[in-house]
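hey so i finally got around to running the thing on that chain from the lab meeting. sorry it took forever, my laptop kept dying and i had to restart like 3 times. anyway pasting the input first so we r on the same page abt which one it is
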Amino acid sequence: MATTTNYGWTTPDDTALVKDGASAIRSLGTSVDTTTKNLNPSTTLGDIEYRSSTANTNTRLAIGSTGNVLTVAGGVPSWAAPTLPGLKLITTQSFSATTTINVNDVFSTTYDNYKVIMNFECATNADASFNFRFRSGGADNSNATYNYQRITADPSVGGAQNLTQTTGELGNATNNATQWVTIEFFNPYASAASFYYSNMNGGSASDPEIWIRSGSFNNTTSFTGFSILAQKNLTGSISVLGYAK
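ok and heres what got predicted. didnt touch it at all, straight out
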């Protein structure tokens, strides 16, 4: 029997008997129906089709979830949540009347750099130093490899460089005043030197101060978190965000 060039549908030969015409038409119709269905496998509103690895066959891709975008995975189309530029919230946690705030399992391969936003009150009758340490495996790293430079807009404190410290300095917590600090961590998860930059509003609403710190952890250690260390009890909240790659 003769066949078509592209899809191989069976057609009658020139010498075929007329009495077999109905059977030949049915065979051809069945082949056309099967091929057409393979080319259009959609069954549901929103379906799209793409070419599969099988000759003359398409594959149905069901509609994605609201907000998804069409992308490619493993060499074929697929739906996925969009990766957008900007900051992505990783965690937020509150703390009350404590001198130590442990933030675990926030650094990973998902992001390279991070922003920490923290607000707190120090309910004491004296100022309190305010530092941090990197953490891995749920434990602080207190090696004397923290280096930092300080700039403080306060009549009693100037700028100074501090090397081989066991903590990274952030500023000074002032008694009975709501304060904010932002910390930028650069490269903390990579097995390389890690860096930080912090900006803290010291003093009070009526007597503001500026505490700026920039420093590093000068060792090739991969970290998964950090801790905040203060001389006096702090109460507030802390959020960690990652910079989308």
